[in-house]
Every structure is written in structure tokens, then in C-alpha cells.
Amino acid sequence: xxxxxxxxxxxxxxxxxxxxxxxxxxxxxxxxxxxxxxxxxxxxxxxxxxxxxxxxxxxxxxxxxxxxxxxxxxxxxxxxxxxxxxxxxxxxxxxxxxxxxxxxxxxxxxxxxxxxxxxxxxxxxxxxxxxxxxxxxxxxxxxxxxxxxxxxxxxxxxxxxxxxxxxxxxxxxxxxxxxxxxxxxxxxxxxxxxxxxxxxxxxxxxxxxxxxxxxxxxxxxxxxxxxxxxxxxxxxxxxxxxxxxxxxxxxxxxxxxxxxxxxxxxxxxxxxxxxxxxxxxxxxxxxxxxxxxxxxxxxxxxxxxxxxxxxxxxxxxxxxxxxxxxxxxxxxxxxxxxxxxxxxxxxxxxxxxxxxxxxx
Length: 360
What we know:
Elements: H1 3-55, H2 57-61, H3 64-90, H4 95-102, H5 109-113, H6 116-135, H7 141-151, H8 158-188, H9 193-207, H10 211-231, H11 235-255, H12 258-264, H13 277-305, H14 321-330, H15 332-345, H16 347-359
Helix pairs in contact: 1-3, 1-15, 3-8, 6-10, 6-13, 8-9, 8-11, 9-10, 10-11, 11-13
């Protein structure tokens, strides 16, 4: 075989490999878009299902803890369970084999957990910047969305606070890590680790459904995706995700105490008398979180400066990066997903406008 024939044969083989990869890639992108459509539709169903419940006189006669439990149940079913189960079936990802693989004993677990301060510092720095931008829109629908997120972590009593804690610190990390890092990201990894991490992180961000959480959730998703690939397990990311959410969860438990509520609102007089133990615990925890945030930001900056040392292993694929993004974004289901995401994000504007028209 001549040199020209060898070159032609090599090009032909690469072309065939590319053609053999693209149909599967197109299919998985289409199915991921379909999973996200189910996710947004399920969110709408949850809101519709919640209306008659919350308008019922019974809802306001029961205890705050029971109301919180009902909200938790609706969220668990429609915002977590339905989308996660749909991902299992639509992505054609056998649950048993997927679970066995992604829940393997993680490599470098200690080193990965040591990354938590940087993970927290980076995500919260983005969150703070987002909140500062949101404060510029105070009194608007954007500002209302930020207040709504803050209210979600406020509990009227200790029983309600424990329900919130279980929801955000235990249930959500387990479901979301299996859903995004265990199913969506793993389905995309054969086509590039970096691509899989970024797509799963963006989808993780838009699933939160508001401006207040999108940016820091997507940032957190990138870090968690990197750690899942590096440790070859979502056990690591589930633990770190739970640790991340536990910080807000513990604050919810502390602020559910009446003495702490008085202290935070400036109603409690702590002069010339013993400071209550719950208030001392609240101050200690707030100080710890502030130190963790500052140390985490410094650690994150150090890691980002040396980012070349922390690149994820590359996956050899014949589909170029621009081509992968082009195929993904051109799928009809992905386009519908993005439209639904935009509508969800701007829904506060729509509701406000409808209210203005009705009250006019």
C-alpha cells in the first residue's frame, strides 16, 4: 500500500468513526433534553397541585410543621423523584449497573474532601456577587425572586426547621447527585469529560428555576462534576453536596429558636445579662461560616491559578468540541428545554404583570 493510500485509508477510518459516534451522541442529547422537559413540566404540575392544597382552609388549620411536610412531599415527588426516574428510563441507563458504577469506592477521597473549603468559597462568592446584582433590582420581580430564596430557608419553629434540614442536607444531595452526576453526566462522558461536566452543571443550574440560584448552582455543579470524574464516584460529591447544604440547614435550625429570632431581629436585650446559649451557638456558627468562606475563597483562587494541574482526564473523541456544542444546542428537545427555562426564570415578571392588570 502506497503512502497516499495509507493517508486516504486513515482519513476514511476516522470519518467512519466520526459517523459512528454522532448518531449515538445526537440520540443522548435528544434524550437529555427530553428529561429536562419532563423536569419543567413536573415543576408546573407541582405548582398546580399545590394551589388547591394551599387554598384549602385545612392547610392553615394544621401546624407549620405539617405544612412544611406537605411542601416537602410535593417537592420530593414532582421536583426530584419524577425527573430522576424519567432520567433512568429515558436515558436507557440501567439503574443497577449505573448505581454499581457511580457508587464505587472513590479514589483520593481524603484529598477530594479537603477541596470542600474551595468548593464552598467559590460557589458562595458567586452567590454573593449574584445577590449584590439582585439588590440593584430591589422592589422588582428579580428582587422578589431573591427574597423568595431567602424565605425558603426560614422556619417558624424547630419541627419545621428539622424538615427543611432533612430536605436540603440529606434528600436533595442524594437525589441530585444521582440525577445530574450519576445519570446525565455519565451519559455524556464518552463524548468528553469537560463537555459532560459543563452540560450537567448548566442543567443543574437551570433546574433550580430562578436567577438567585442559577449561577452559584452551576458553579457548584462544575466543581462537583470535576470531583466525580476525578474520584470516579459520586459518593464523594454526595458527601460534599450534603456538607454544602448542611451549612444553610444548620443555620435554619439555629434561627428557628425564639431567642435567636429575637436576637437577629434586634428585639432581644442582651445588655447586662447572660447571653442565651442558642444565641452563643448562632454567633459561633456564623463566625465559623465567615471564616470558612474567606479561607475557601483564598483556597479557590490558589486552585484556579494552578488550574492546569487539575485538568480532568481527556476523552479521545472524533467529534470536535464546537461540533458537540452545536449538536447539543440544535436538538429540538434541548431548544424546548431552554425556552421552558427562560419562561420559568421570567415567571415572576409575568405573575407581577398579571397582578398589576388585575388590580388596575
